[in-house]
Amino acid sequence: MSSLFPALVGASWTTAALAQVRSAPRPQLERTNYAGRTVSLGGGIAAATGVLASTLAATQDSRVRAAAGLAVATAGGLGALDDLTEQPQDSGTKGLKGHLRALAQGRVTTGAAKLLGITAASAVAGCLIASARGGSARGRVLDAVTSAGLIAGTANLVNLLDLRPGRALKVTAAAAAPLAMAAGAAGGTAAGVLGTSLAAAPSDLAETTMLGDTGANALGAALGVALATHRSRELRLGVLALTVAATLASERISFSRVIAENTVLHRIDRFGVRAP
User: CA 25, CA 42: separation in Å to the nearest integer?
Assistant: First the structure.
């Protein structure tokens, strides 16, 4: 299957959903961003809709399609739960440590529910992907664990990057572009991520919409599926190691500060963003 088709599916569904957001604004979706501007979480809903549609169009393998659909729908759905129902007392609970600490205290935050739900869905998706790939029993177990880690890890990592306009979309597009040239489900899924990211970018950069957890988690999970279905085991293990390292680093290091202090990264980060 050509990668062009899922890319067009992702872009068209995202564009249509964004048009609906513009034509029928919903006050309950409005949030204030880092610069004090009013933005709509409808951008995240549109991106989640587009990337879900594209992942389902990316392959004809029923097990991989089920894995992708489960991972992306769960990530986007639980992201929406976090976006729309987070309690005021939980707003300061951030990072893996924060949510796990809250659980240890008997308090289930929406972030913790998202963390556990995405992990569980990623585990099931990983098993389906490993089953579709085949191989020895020991190889399938390793494959399932690696795939689950990639899906859950990238869903979380893309969400961590969504702190400034366009940042998460630039990263997902940059990661998906070379993957889109791969054969099979990996290329098709990555192409869908790329098409969705490009379609969602203009309004995100203009600071009229934002991805929120809904869009960032869904795009990250889809990118994880693309990586998990790639034929190169070395690539899968290498990216998983980088994802784990970046996630652990995020507990101690501010990505925004690192980007702001690096001239090249800062220019890339600000490229296309609405002027102050």
Answer: 9
Q: Residue 87, class by beta-carbon neighbours within 10 Å (0-12 exposed, 13-18 middle, 19+ buried)?
A: exposed
User: Can you read off the two tokens belonging to residue 66?
Assistant: 């089920």
Look at residue 43 and tell me if it is in a domain: yes
194 within domain boundaries: yes
Give me the half-sphere count of Cα atoms (radius 13 Å) on the Cβ side of residue 52: 21
For the residues of 177-205, what is the DSSP string, one character each? HHHTTSSHHHHHHHHHHHHHHHHHHHHHH
Helix (H, G, I), strand (E, B) or coil at 209: strand
Distance, in Å, from the CA atom of 29 to the CA atom of 131, rounded to the nearest integer, reads 39
Whole-structure pTM value: 0.92
- d(C-alpha 184, C-alpha 58), whole Å: 8
Residue written as token pair 């879900």: 52
Instruction: Convert the pLDDT of each residue in 87-131 to its tens digit.
Output: 555 555 565 666 566 666 666 677 778 889 999 999 999 999 999
Domain that holds residue 215: 4-270
Residue 275 within any structural domain of the chain: no
DSSP, res 164: S
Residue 276 inside a domain? The answer is no
Give, in order, the Cα–Cα distances in Å from 110 to each of 119, 154, 274.
14, 19, 31
DSSP track, 45-62: HHHHHHHHHHHHTS-S-H
Helix axes 233-250, 212-228, angle to 10 degrees: 150
Give the E-state strand segments of the chain in sequence order: 30-32, 38-40
Pairing mode of beta strands 38-40, 30-32: antiparallel
